Amino acid sequence: MAAPLVTIIIPTYNQAAYLEDAVRSALRQDYANLEVIVADDCSSDSTPEVVKKFAGDGRLRYYRNKTNLGKTANYRRSLYELANGEWVLNLDGDDYLTDENYISVAMKQISRYQNVVLFTAGVKSVRRKGFHFPHIHRLVKEQVCLEGLNLFLNWQRYKIPHLTSLYHRQTACRIGFYDVDISSADWESLLRLVLHGNVILSERIAGVWRKHSNNLSQTMDFHQFTANIIFITKPLEYARNNGCDKNLLEAWGKNMIDTIMRDQFNEVWINVMRKRSLAEMIQFTQIVKKEKPEFVNNFFQLKNVARFFLYFSLTALTNLNILFKPGK
User: Fold this and answer.
1) What pLDDT was estimated at residue 100?
2) What is residue 321's three-state secondary structure?
3) If residue 296 lies in a helix (H) or strand (E), which one and from where to where?
């Protein structure tokens, strides 16, 4: 009996500087029945030339959208129209896999258990610029197979990485994967998926998530942040409609907002402060006070107070340099 086909989707847009690592890491997987699809969202850089370097590998297919669909829509087209595998892994064009046995190990473990809808593992995150120690996000010390509801209710503990998530394609398509265009479309989809079966969490570190200035977490604005709460409210409603305990779900929703959403709010606040514009900082605090007052307390967290004074000092120094610059 032939091994199930696995598809590694590599959706990309203007990521030629990183794409070669992503494609190479996918093609280095030692799993026998594999297809790799590069879904180019109408890039204006040298993406086609990068892909041509791997043209001799028959497992690779390249598709270029006629127009730019946007990140989530490109995910969706890749999954619904291009992928053929029974199992799918979505590897963004600026990330890459580090474990060449990952798909083989995952498929072997999936075959050992009943009703598995997701196999996933930890990642290492690295920043492109500046000196930063890599951060290791290990899910578990030893592999474990969990009931999906257990993972759902403890999501803030595990924070499942998208780039290592090998999921069952038929189930994903049936429940409407990637149908909400928000920053956390991946988590919104995975949260609903895990309610349909068991999940295997691996102790392995299987890939690298690159953090750089074009990541959504580095560019998210306040309106994107407020829209992103759907990644909590929609799975919560989905779980309620599937018979999950209402009290458990209410506590879960509050916990998700108090942890993950507050972390995302801090990222947005940092993005504002990076601009070193006091006027924009003041405007942002006024908008938050009016539209999302429950997050006002975040401004007074010790780390945010320290960041504010750092960026405020840098802004003041920049303004002084401009003021006293010769010729002014």
Assistant:
1) 98
2) helix
3) none
**CA atoms of 165 and 225, how far apart (whole Å):** 24
Backbone angles phi, psi at 132, to 5 degrees: -140, 135
Give residue 275's pLDDT.
79
Q: E strands along the chain, which residues? A: 6-12, 34-40, 60-64, 87-90, 96-97, 116-127, 135-137, 144-147, 166-168, 198-211
Tokens of 276: 């070193």
Average pLDDT, the chain: 91
- Output b/e per residue, 124-145; b: 16+ Cβ within 10 A: bbebeeeeeeeeebebeeeeee
Q: Which residue has the higher pLDDT, 133 or 95?
A: 95
pLDDT digits (tens, 9 = 90+) for 115-159: 999 999 999 998 765 445 678 999 999 999 999 999 999 999 999
Dump strand ranges (E) for 1-108: 6-12, 34-40, 60-64, 87-90, 96-97
Q: Is residue 266 within 8 Å of 230, Cβ to Cβ?
A: no
**pLDDT for residue 255:** 96
Q: How many CA atoms lie within 13 A of 224 on its CB side?
A: 16
Mean pLDDT of 97-105: 98
Task: Please calculate the CA angle 125-223-233 and round it to the nearest 5 degrees.
Answer: 75
Fold of 6-210: Spore Coat Polysaccharide Biosynthesis Protein SpsA; Chain A (3.90.550)
Q: Is 180 helix (H, G, I), strand (E, B) or coil?
A: coil
Which residue type sits at 81?
E
Of residues 230, 200, 3, the one with CA closest to residue 112: 200
Read off the tokens for 127.
């920043």
**Looking at residue 131, what is its pLDDT?**
44
Q: Could you report the per-residue pLDDT of 274-307, keeping only the tens digit for each?
A: 877 778 888 889 999 988 899 899 888 888 888 7
Domain ranges of the chain: 6-210, 275-328
CA angle 304/310/316 to nearest 5° reads 130
Which residues, including other chains, have CB under 8 Å from residue 117's CB and lie 6 or more apart?
A: 148, 167, 168, 171, 193, 194, 196, 197, 198, 199
